[in-house]
Amino acid sequence: MNAGTPGSADAVSRDAASCVFCAQEGGTVWWRDAWLRVIEAGEPDYPGFCRLVWNAHVTEFSDLSNDEREHLIRALAAVERALRATFNPDKINIASLGNLVAHQHWHVIPRFADDPHFPAPVWAARRREPSARQHAARVAAAAGVGAAVRDALQREFG
């Protein structure tokens, strides 16, 4: 899996000057407000995989104010609803790791029982090759996920 970040575990970016999410968008932006952006992760095995990236360089969730945390959680829920409506997945995985990029960001991933890694995390060893037919259907559905995410967030935040 491409983590979407340069470097290795030995070179974790802790400061804004060397942070990939401070220096660039991190992917195609589907939605943005003053506090965060939702980007397409661009993971070929996982159509619809996206990230919520906090715009300011903040390392830990607990560093956010109560209002900021509430905003982030509402955005995560809206994105999850959009992905569920678009893909009807078996599960949505939501993860915040920050092991390679010490900048608050959340992975939101539609999961299916027949995906390449299920039931393990998408970063685990691959268990199977995806069905070409199923994967093509998910890629086709993903063509509308950016609009679905924008609509869901517009409904959530007005």
From TrEMBL:
**Which residues belong to any copy of the HIT domain?**
17-118
Q: Mind telling me what this protein is named?
A: Diadenosine tetraphosphate (Ap4A) HIT family hydrolase
One of the entry's Gene Ontology molecular-function terms is: hydrolase activity
Q: Does the keyword Hydrolase apply?
A: yes
Positions of short motif Histidine triad motif: 103-107
Reply yes or no: does the keyword Hydrolase apply.
yes
Which terms are listed as keywords in the entry? Hydrolase
Q: Which InterPro entries match?
A: HIT-like, HIT-like_sf
